[in-house]
């Protein structure tokens, strides 16, 4: 995903706006009108070349061509001919500006209070008429290789989706203007999970309007829960442009440029640092737990602001914890995040280690630095929560665990599966004997990672020293931890790895078998060479009495199935009522209340130890390696 912005929302010519967006740090810009006094489709070849040169000068790319193509209700033949001519101008712009994304409409437009609003999704005759009118546009757009997004403006999202499904072009989708129609949803649908899921299933573009942004309370409209919408978009795995179409109300008295900047800053603040594991998790409203120490919140500093930026957002939303600082070796990144959350920032961790008010250091740096940084923190009396994997080598984990014990400090690892329902429900079913004697488990993790992903931030990912391996370490460690949580530590392992599509030191695919003395066999595979952008997980387990299948991010959709002699159900036999928002919530609770962490450093070390034995096998031609 990437953030873009309608250039004409400033009510200035695009050539004047582009330098401003460069100053803001933006990477993309959308074009609609106010370019040389004309809309994008009316630009000459020479004008488009000049526009492209301006973009190149400032290092920006075109995000979406936000045309008004076919934005008219059931037009006559002459108007349809004019729209076909408009499309030729759009194609010319798409070629010169190197942008295939185009916002379109579909000859079906109604006002919000029109009784006919919604009929396109319910009347086959109306749908057939619109499809026939649109056919020449669709044919030419396909020939030109455009990726069209149809906006829910003048129609409901269901109408746009019905039209998209009827067209049957896989890359075309919904240009979802979330604020449109959102304000008329009944309050009973306030959580909107089903609606958001449906819209995101078809969305290939998203629009942000100022009226739906909570950072603009001056605009008295129903606010969109953008942190959930964007997390859901990230969970799709698609490269969705998120375009700010500010639409400042004329009677608001707000400055257009200033309001647009406030929208942009807000979207950056709630932007997900990583893709959630599944759509349901992403879209479910954030849980709130009242903690008895809310008036004395645990004071946390986040170190490392890649994925750490997401952790800052989590902390800001959690009762009983308080973000009191951020740190990153990139001072500009530290400044940006610090200013977003109005907290102190620095590129020097010692600033916070020497601050007696700081209680916890949350380490979200490259894997191979976790324990070294943790030991610096322990030396200064700070508790530590680190992201996964715990480190690049289990021996480094041992040294840090020993120091934490000597200093009597809390040390935890953030394996976030433990703080949501599915894993806990599975553990409870295993403990209750639902499966009988477990005989087999299989987990598959398919992810697409690009060369740009591995090259980013100095190229630490996919290295042995800083990432502790490849696909099995950075991504597959989640599933290794999940298997250990359910089955325990295996007695022996064997593994094969390969580097198929990326220029990295370690593997981009790994396949392993685990063997247990009780006869149980488990298999695990993890790849970052999957051709489709997604986080596709499939987890299977069975025993002599029951079976379990979890799938998310793939063609089956997101489901959890439980099977026994009575057949299959998606209702968990031992449902879990969630207790924690995420790792920092649990860590703070245990620190204040003196209870045991859900996932402690020993758990992190165990997952790393098993992974290291898997790598030992891979380096010895896949032979069996005993686990001590």
Question: How would you describe what is shown here?
Answer:
With 628 residues, the protein is an alpha/beta fold. Helices cover 37% and strands 20% of the residues. The strands form 3 sheets. The protein has a 9-stranded mixed beta sheet with strand order 22-21-20-19-15-18-17-16-23. Helix 11 links the parallel strand 10 (321-327) and strand 11 (345-346). Helix 3 (77-97) packs parallel to helix 4 (124-144), helix 13 runs parallel beside helix 14 (394-407) and helix 14 runs antiparallel to helix 21.
Describe the sheet with the most strands.
9 strands, mixed
Strand line-up across the major sheet:
22-21-20-19-15-18-17-16-23
Assembly state of the chains shown? single chain
Q: Fraction of residues in helices?
A: 25-40%
Rg, Cα atoms, Å: 26 Å
Determine the number of helices (DSSP H or I, runs of at least 4 residues).
21
Q: How large a portion of the residues is in β-strands, by DSSP E?
A: 15-25%
- Measured between the Cα atoms of the first and last residue, the distance is 44 Å
Average pLDDT score? 93
- What is the general shape? globular
Total strand count, please? Answer: 23
* Class derived from helix and strand content: alpha/beta
Poorly predicted regions are none
Topology at a glance:
Layout (H helix, E strand, L loop, with lengths): L1 E4 L8 H11 L3 E4 L13 H14 L2 E9 L7 H21 L3 E4 L19 H21 L2 E5 L5 H11 L5 E5 L15 H10 E6 L17 H11 L4 E4 L11 H15 L8 H5 L14 E6 L4 H9 L4 E7 L3 H11 L3 E2 L3 H4 L6 E4 L6 H10 L3 E5 L6 H14 L3 E4 L6 H11 L6 E10 L3 H5 L8 H4 L3 H5 L1 H11 L4 E7 L10 E7 L5 E7 L7 E9 L3 E6 L6 E6 L2 E3 L13 H11 L7 H18 L6 E2 L2
Parallel strand pairs: 1-8, 2-3, 3-4, 4-5, 5-6, 6-7, 7-8, 9-10, 9-12, 10-11, 12-13, 13-14, 15-18
Antiparallel strand pairs: 15-19, 16-17, 16-23, 17-18, 19-20, 20-21, 21-22
């Amino acid at each position: 995903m990437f953030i873009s912005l309608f250039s004409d929302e400033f009510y200035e010519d695009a050539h004047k706006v582009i330098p401003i967006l460069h100053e803001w740090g933006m990477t993309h810009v959308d074009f609609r009108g106010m370019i040389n006094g004309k809309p994008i489709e009316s630009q000459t070849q020479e004008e488009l070349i000049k526009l492209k040169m301006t973009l190149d000068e400032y290092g920006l790319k075109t995000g979406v061509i936000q045309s008004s193509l076919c934005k008219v209700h059931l037009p006559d033949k002459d108007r349809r001919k004019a729209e076909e001519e408009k499309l030729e101008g759009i194609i010319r712009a798409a070629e010169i500006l190197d942008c295939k994304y185009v916002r379109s409409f579909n000859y079906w437009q109604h006002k919000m209070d029109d009784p006919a609003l919604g009929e396109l999704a319910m009347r086959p005759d109306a749908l057939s008429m619109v499809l026939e009118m649109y056919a020449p546009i669709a044919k030419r757009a396909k020939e030109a290789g455009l990726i069209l997004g149809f906006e829910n403006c003048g129609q409901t999202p269901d109408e746009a989706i019905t039209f998209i499904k009827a067209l049957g072009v896989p890359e075309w989708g919904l240009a979802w203007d979330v604020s449109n129609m959102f304000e008329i949803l009944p309050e009973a649908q306030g959580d909107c999970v089903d609606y958001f899921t449906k819209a995101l299933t078809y969305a290939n573009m998203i629009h942000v309007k100022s009226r739906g942004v909570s950072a603009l309370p001056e605009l008295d409209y129903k606010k969109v829960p953008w942190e959930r919408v964007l997390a859901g978009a990230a969970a799709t795995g698609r490269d969705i442009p998120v375009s700010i179409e500010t639409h400042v109300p004329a009677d608001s008295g707000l400055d257009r440029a200033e309001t647009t900047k406030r929208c942009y800053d807000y979207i950056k603040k709630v932007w997900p640092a990583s893709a959630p594991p599944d759509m349901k998790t992403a879209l479910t409203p954030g849980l709130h737990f009242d903690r008895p120490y809310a008036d004395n919140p645990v004071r946390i500093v986040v170190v490392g602001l890649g994925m750490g930026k997401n952790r800052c957002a989590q902390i800001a939303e959690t009762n009983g914890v308080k973000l009191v600082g951020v740190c990153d070796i990139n001072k500009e990144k530290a400044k940006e995040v610090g200013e977003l959350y109005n907290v102190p920032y620095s590129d020097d961790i010692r600033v916070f280690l020497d601050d007696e008010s700081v209680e916890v250091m949350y380490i979200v740096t490259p894997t191979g630095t976790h324990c070294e940084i943790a030991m610096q923190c322990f030396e200064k009396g700070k508790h530590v929560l680190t992201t996964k994997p715990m480190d690049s080598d289990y021996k480094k984990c041992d040294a840090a665990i020993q120091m934490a014990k000597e200093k009597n400090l809390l040390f935890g690892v953030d394996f976030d599966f433990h703080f949501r329902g599915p894993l806990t429900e599975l553990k409870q079913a295993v403990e209750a004997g639902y499966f009988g004697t477990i005989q087999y488990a299989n987990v598959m993790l398919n992810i697409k990672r690009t060369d740009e992903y591995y090259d980013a931030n100095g190229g630490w990912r996919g290295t042995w020293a800083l990432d502790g391996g490849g696909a099995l370490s950075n991504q597959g460690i989640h599933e290794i931890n999940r298997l250990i949580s359910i089955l325990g530590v295996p007695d022996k392992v064997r593994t094969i790895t390969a580097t198929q599509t990326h220029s990295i030191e370690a593997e981009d695919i790994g396949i392993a078998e685990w063997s247990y003395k009780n006869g149980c066999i488990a298999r695990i595979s993890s790849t970052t060479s999957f051709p489709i952008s997604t986080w596709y997980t499939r987890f299977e387990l069975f025993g002599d009495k029951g079976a379990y299948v979890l799938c998310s991010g793939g063609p089956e959709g997101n489901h959890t199935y439980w099977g026994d002699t009575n057949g299959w159900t998606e209702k968990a036999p031992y449902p879990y009522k969630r207790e924690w928002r995420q790792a920092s919530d649990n860590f703070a609770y245990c620190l204040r209340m003196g209870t045991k962490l859900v996932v402690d450093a020993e758990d992190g070390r165990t997952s790393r130890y098993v992974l290291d034995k898997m790598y030992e096998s891979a380096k010895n031609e896949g032979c069996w390696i005993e686990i001590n």
